[in-house]
Amino acid sequence: MLGSSKKTTRSFCIDLGKLLAISLGLLWSVATFAADLQETQKLLRRGEYEKCIEIAKGEVERSVWNEGWPKLLVEAYLTIGEYEEAVRVYEAGVQRFSTSLRLRMLGAQAYRMTDNAKQARATIQAIPELIQRVPGRFTSRSEMVALGEYFLLENEDPKQVLELCFDKVIKEDPKFVEAHVGSARLAISKNDDQVALASLKKAVALDKEDPEIFYLLARAWGSTDSEKSSEFIRQALSLNPKHIPSLLWLAELKLDAEAYDLAEEILSEIESINPKLPSVWALRAAIAHLRGQFEKEGDARRKALLSWPLNPEVDYLIGKNLADHYRFAESVEYQRRALVMQEDYAPARTQLAQDLLRLGQLEEGWKLVEQVRKKDAYDVSIFNLTKLRARLEKFATLEAPGLIVRMDSTEAKIYGPSVVALLSEARDVLTKKYGSTLEEPVFVEIFPKQSDFAIRTFGLPGGDGFLGVCFGRLITANSPAALQGYSNWQSVLWHEYCHVVTLQKTKNRMPRWLSEGISVYEERQRDPRWGQGMTPTYRQMILGEDFTPVSQLSSAFLRPKSPMHLQFAYYEASLVIEYWMKEYGIRSLQQLLDDLSVGMPIEEALGRRAGGIKALDADFQSFAHARANQYGRGLTFDDTDEERPEDIDGLKAYLAEHPNDYKALNQYAILLVRSKQSEEALAIVKRITDAIPDDVSPNGGPTLLTVLYRNLEQDDELYQSLVQLQNMSPDCFDELSLLIEIDQEKKEYAKVKKWCDLALQIDPLRSTIHELRAEAAELIDQPEAAIESLRALNEMDPRDIAGVHFRLAKNLIKLKSPQEAKRHLLMALEESPRYREALSLLLEMNRE
Question: Which residues, 6 or more positions from 469, have their beta carbon under 8 angstroms from its beta carbon?
Answer without folding.
Answer: 457, 475, 476, 477, 496
